[in-house]
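Can you give me the bound-state structure? Components:
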Amino acid sequence: MKKKNAKKVLALMTAALMASASFVGCSGDTSSSASSDASTSAESKTAKLMAAAEGAVGNWGLGNEYEIQALLRKYGYDTSYISQAFDMDGFDTDEILLASAMTYNELGLVKNSYDGGYNYGDTVSVIDMNEEGVAMLEDMLFCTKDFAEKNPETVKAFVYASMKGWAYACANTKEAAEICYKYGSSVSPDHQAYMADESAKLVSTDMSGNTVDSSAYGSIDKNAVQQTLDLCKKYMVLDDSTAADKLKNMTTEDVYNDTFIKDVIELLNSNETPSFKPEKKEVSIQLKWLPDAQFMGYYVALDKGYYKEVGLDVKDSDIVPGGGDVGETTAVSNGTVDFGVTWVSNLISANASGMDLVEVAQVFQRSGLVLVYKNEWAASNGVD
Amino acid sequence: MRKKHKFPPKWLVTSVWIIGFLLLWEFGAFLVENNPKIQNPEYILPHMWQIFASFFDTNLTTATQTPFQVVLEACGATLSRAGIGFLIGLSAGFILALLMNLSHIVEKVAFPYLMLIQVIPILGLAPIILALTGDIGISRMVIAAILTFYPVSANTLAGFKSVSTEQKQLMFNYAAKIPVTYWKLMFPTCIPYFFTGLKTAAPMAITASILVDTLQGDGGLGCALSQSLKHNTTIYVFWEIVIAAAAVGIFSFYLMGMIENMVSPLQRINRKLKRGDKG
Amino acid sequence: MRHFLKSRKCRMISSVMYPVLFGVIIFVLWETQILHSIMNTSTDVLPVPSKIASVIGENITKLMGNLWITTVPTLIGLAVGSALGYAVAVIASIFTKWGGGGITLVSCFNAVPIVALAPIFNNLCKHVSTDIGTRGMAAKALVVMMLCMASMSINAFRGLTELPPFSTDMMKSYASSKRVTFVKLRLPNSVPYIFTALRVSVPISVISALVSEYFIDTREGSATFCPGLGRMIRDTILKCQYSAAWSYIAIACLLGITLFVVLMIFESVMLKNRQKQ
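Here's the bound-state model for the whole set.
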């Protein structure tokens, strides 16, 4: 009994230490003190909104909730939220006042009037996780450590072709949307075009709002990974104590390996056409969600033959749609597919439970998660 | 039994009930529609005629397909996958029942676990089976097979047990070998029991297949259903699927009945007698 | 006589021994990870039993909280659904000619998959209560009720109408009224059928409660709110927390088994006299 208590105290102390460390880390990041005035006014606005929406903040859960929980905690609320279905009906009916939305998907459905949309136009606004300092890294490319060690050329070739696809897609979003529509028809063409535009923004803007040069797409920012990991350590509840311990001791080195993307960026910036000797030619990739422009880079790389150029054999059916109940992390870990697209937090929880996965390229440089609210409701609560 | 002049005829009863049900539905839809709190009545309870109209909707809801085409294609995918799982579960269930009847040890070992399988919420465990097998096609078959397995083997075993000792002794007196006994006596006796199992299992296999579809984007009714609920296609795809799923489930039940009529010796004799009456 | 007893005892023991032995062998294979190599999986996805047990031990209060959230609507749905189903069967048996068609219609509800029923009832219950927990419970209980009602009404209708041969004629010769026939003949005749129905609906009620949790609104994300076993199974699997997932699965199986055992005991007590006759 005593031992247990001692353990608890120890755990509390380490947690407190980590929290303070991350706090110091965060304050170190936001070095631009000139904008602190603006940020405090934004924060007081958010605080008002959060107070008005207490108990009516929605999220999908299932591994997507940590940013929302961090935001709730930031403003002093309990970390619970309403489970949101994968539509915006709850928001539409005012059951959820602050609803989670991805800028490239649900937000478009809320704003636009095309098939499946809710046609709110500019009468809604958002709370951006990046501005609130609780952003976590999302879509990225990963494989198992074992695969990366045994097939370094394959990984490099795949990352090269994929990032080339992303660069092309971000420069030509309209065409990219059409290509996605051709391969996966899960959404309407109008929405696909919207998704392509918004996804491109996430690829080319980082967490602090700076533009990422097209020559640096996919690069992994250690600080951003650190911030993601710190938030995971705070808000991820793991029932298995072994996994919880593993999470506690995890460092960024356990999450990513940026040698591949560094080489790829160098190759992409040099004008010569590289030649790869992939150890495994037939590779497949599992997406995090239904086939749409959130993953346009891979579809463009397939359509434009970039994978073929680097000596890889990727067929239509090798880009496997996700959005199901078994995570892409499991699919990659048990060898069903070679690569996967997932959120950094999902990879962290998978590694904590004993899997050996490694991030090789960070596609989205900032968080695409926002909380959307109706302006009318905000005005009635004293926020303009 | 005494044969009375039958009124009302069966078709009248059925159609009155169906009309009654439709009226009830329409009443509910009317209430939902006129509730000022509800903004999108079609997400809660649309009118029946709206659903039927959507079957003939020519607007494309995905890249290439109208809602009805989506449902039709998904239906085909689900049915074929459920069918394979069903056949596997059916054969495994039948073989186990046979083994259990042949060997007391097998029966003693397997019977409690057979009960256990029925009580374990397999459908609720679909995600973990998917994680274990790593392949959605295999896990769909595994789940459909497990669900088919229990009713088939339990019923078939009951069928074997229903053969009376006198009948078995008669076969023994004829000096019939075991395979002959099974072929001539045991199998024909257990056919009605076997089909009772199939009738329970067929709709279950379809339900299982639909559920597994929702777990990963790989076509099929469940997949189309979840995409419709996620606003990727019109909501009428969802309602069409509700109707299609019910129809397919009922169809599978009647299909088993039809096959039973074709296979069962008893029914064959009945048919022959009928034909004899007419001729 | 003595020999007979001995052999019967022997048979009793062997009928317990064999399955237990089989179970033990499976457990040993599982614990020693031989099962993993046969099934070609890793301990990440299929943790060994001792690991699952330790995770259960660590989170027992959380598990029990979630068990409670799932059990309540399961039992309510089971009870209300079965009662309603029986009532439907009674009404149908009074108007046998018209009732049979109604029962066929009710049996069609069974063919609508749970995955489709759950979102419908979730939407229907949106305006039932402002409290999300109550709303979720109501939706879950309705799904369970729907499925239990179907199986009960079908079976009870058979019990109320498929009477032993000549029994109705006998009642008629006693000049007994319809009510007496119902109480003395139809009602007792339907009792075994009720248990047949319950044997089907008990596992179904657990399954439908678990599966409907995938689709039903809830509040989650903190220690004070439990979303239910089904939701937790899905959640932990998506987060790759397989040892935790298995602990929830074990509890869910336990719920199913417990309800079934209770039913079996109840059935053997209720039908005891019948078998003696």
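A couple of observations. The mean pLDDT of chain B is 82. Residues 178-215 of chain B form the longest helix (38 residues).
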